[in-house]
């Protein structure tokens, strides 16, 4: 896969990547099935499709791991408390509330 093609994939949205991943996996499934019945004309295509699917999954995971956009200035930040989860752990005590 050429660098331009990779960069093009990297710029796709997550939904577009998921759609392409589905198509690639389906194509790989059909090719594997055909290859099991009769030898494929180009068995290296199996490997290329498998690697292409892995690349797409990597780009999807990179987008998931990317930091979320910064909150709008002046908007209150959302705060979550872990006091409930700490108290639910065996042998764990909730931190005392500060007033």
C-alpha termini separation:
59 Å
| CATH class wording of the domain at 3-66 | Mainly Alpha
Number of strands: 0
- Integer-rounded radius of gyration: 23 Å
How would you sum up the major sheet?
none
Spell out the helices and strands N to C: HHHH
Q: Helices and strands in order, then pairings?
A:
Blueprint: H1 3-10, H2 14-37, H3 44-65, H4 83-88
Helix pairs in contact: 2-3
Kindly describe this structure:
With 99 residues, the chain is mainly alpha-helical. The protein has a domain at 3-66: Orthogonal Bundle (Helix Hairpins). Helices cover 61% and strands 0% of the residues. The chain is built from four helices and no strands. It has helices spanning 3-10, 14-37, 44-65, 83-88. The radius of gyration is 23 Å and the shape is elongated. The model has no long low-confidence stretch (mean pLDDT 81).
Q: Quick recap of the structure?
A:
With 99 residues, the protein is an all-alpha fold. It is built from four helices and no strands.
Tag the structure with descriptive keywords.
mainly alpha, single chain
